Amino acid sequence: MDRSGGLRRFAVVTIWDMNASTPPKGPAAAANAADWRIDRERAVALFGAHAHDWPIEIVEETGSTNADLMSRVKALPRKAGALPRPIVRVAYLQTAGRGRRGRPWYAEPGNALLFSVACVLPRPLEGLAGLSLAVGVALVDGLRSLPVAGPGQIALKWPNDILLEGDKLAGILIETAWSTEDASAVVIGIGTNVKGADELAAKIGALNTGAPPQVRGTAPTALQRALPNANLTDTLAAELNALEPALQRFGAEGFAPFQARWNAMHAYAGREVVLLEQGAEVTRGVAAGVDERGQLLLDTAAGRQSIATGDVSLRLADGAA
What we know:
Blueprint: E1 15-18, H1 27-36, H2 40-47, E2 56-62, H3 65-74, E3 87-94, E4 112-121, H4 131-144, E5 154-157, E6 161-164, E7 167-179, E8 184-193, H5 197-208, H6 232-253, H7 259-264, E9 272-277, E10 280-290, E11 296-300, E12 303-307, E13 313-316
Parallel strand pairs: 1-2, 2-3
Antiparallel strand pairs: 3-4, 4-8, 5-6, 6-7, 7-8, 9-10, 9-13, 10-11, 11-12
Helix pairs in contact: 2-6, 4-6
């Protein structure tokens, strides 16, 4: 946000809409197309000229935007200035999209905003602790800047999920391409359910049939639940406008300046939770926020524990209020 409280605008010098078909003619056709495609003219208007000019690529379909950008940043020189500006790659459909621990990410074209950001941060590998949480804070800030009903209902679940009224709205997947003593190249994958919550819930429900409750993910929802006219264009603008200053600050200061904001957005604060590893309970306790490295703090019967991100999942305990 800028000092006046308005949305900080995001300058886009180039928006490439690769392989896009010719837009249909006429007001009704244009409105229908804009309903699920990214409106380039509106995007440019929303992004403005007061921040950095990240190039944005938009493709109809790809396997994975993360994989696309990972292959490119791996070929960069391994130094802090290897990528002057982050690159954004958006796809309407990902045929091999995935979330944390390799889980597939299901989305119909036009219903979800699927994109990745490649950047080189001036930090070594150990200095990336808490990056996914800092990105989560930025995304919540961006989504709350939209005219959503009950913005406080958009909250964070450790380590990398965004919830709307307790259901999963968005997920974050961060991969490191390379790291040196003074720089790290990362790709940040973001998937946000914008529309089609009922269809998505039905599909996930079918996939979970027969699976024990402890291995099922958080039920999905969509932004349309809080913003009936939600669309990909405005959602992309809001998220990128919040990400731009957040990545700059993380590069300079790490997670520490985001800690208080993350704890204020914590969906499970003060509630009993269960920590699972491969579906089996590891420990349980009352969620007490995160520390300066982004580790989850749990108040357990044995005292306070710090939990690092890894192959673990977090769930509310049965009957937790």
